[in-house]
Amino acid sequence: MMRNRQTVALKRVIVDYKKLDNHILNLLVEKYPEGYDDADIVTYRNANNEVVECIEVRTEDTAYLVRVSKRLVMAMEDYDESENISDNDEETSLDTDGLEDSDEE
Description:
The chain is α+β, with helices and mostly antiparallel strands. The chain has two helices and four strands, in the order E-H-E-E-E-H. Strand 3 and strand 4 (62-67) form a beta hairpin. Helix 1 (22-31) crosses helix 2 (70-83). The radius of gyration is 16 Å and the shape is globular. Mean pLDDT is 78; it is low at 86-96 and 101-105.
């Protein structure tokens, strides 16, 4: 029987899109290779009583709550694409079905 990791006290870290590093981006892309959906979103209220939406990824000792935004989605997609570039990157074809055009903020 597998031990429940919930019993271990994890350090909880809230991470904004601007502070993402490659380690956390890699965790996100591994956990959500097809992207995340509403069921993956953790919602809470911050000190200003504002609703904040995050997705969670965990390491052995830390639970990272990464704030959800359009830019997070783009960063995950860009990171995933950069990790999968082959030696023949001129022939790289991207599956753009289902992607929406978004305006830069």
